[in-house]
Amino acid sequence: MQIYWTTIEEIIEETPQVKTYLLKVPEGFTWEEGAHTHFALEGFNAGEKPNRSLIRHMSISTLPNENYIGITTRIKEQCSEFKSILRNMERGEKVAIFKTSSNVPFKRHVPNVYLLSSGVGLATFRPLILQYLEDQTGIEKLHSLNVDSTKDYLYPNVFESVEGHHQLISEFVDNRAYYYERVKQLAEDRDGLFYIVGSDPFLEQNIEILRAAGIAPDQMMLDKHPHQREAFFTQEEMA
């Protein structure tokens, strides 16, 4: 396993509780849209065994052509040791990234793509949206639906820049009940491709609604490794 040590180049306050940490791209480090990585703080590998309290599994919220590795995360007032340390970190401090891969690469040649997310889960989809804006080949429509009870919605600059772009729909809602009603409506598109990012209960609820509407498992993209993905659909079938 290769560990890439790098530095925080910039810290962006997206909302009162959400920050994006822009990291310098280490030599030889590559990734694609929809990628996730292990993000670790100094000291995580100082002992015989890794200190897992200093490691988190994070999505990369930037594309390679932005020349930064973006890590977007919510940091509440009451938070874990990891988030508490991260909150007080500054530009120039060292962090590590390793085990980078993607479970939700951008697929083309499907009529309509739906991005279903909760809160900061939208960070996973930001690169997909930017990729679509660069090249719409093979996709008729991209529809992002995000639920966030804080009402501090992420990346307004991205969506404001494409206002009037009729093939890209950005929809934010502030409660789960209405969100799931919208998912049912979007699922009327039996040919759509549905990407889902969020907590495990959030994934389970979305899968249940989509399956009930006749959406097949191969039309759902989850930010999970293959064996983890399989477990979600096995659970759904046994319910």
UniProtKB/TrEMBL annotation:
Name by which UniProt lists this protein: Dihydropteridine reductase
PROSITE patterns with a match to the protein in the record: FAD_FR
One of the record's GO molecular function terms: oxidoreductase activity
Gene3D superfamilies documented for this protein: Nucleotide-binding domain of ferredoxin-NADP reductase (FNR) module, Translation factors
First and last residue of the signal peptide: none
Source organism superkingdom: Bacteria
Record-linked InterPro entries: FAD-bd_FR_type (IPR017927), FNR_nucleotide-bd (IPR039261), Riboflavin_synthase-like_b-brl (IPR017938)
Entry-linked SUPFAM superfamilies: Ferredoxin reductase-like, C-terminal NADP-linked domain, Riboflavin synthase domain-like
FAD-binding FR-type domain location: 1-112
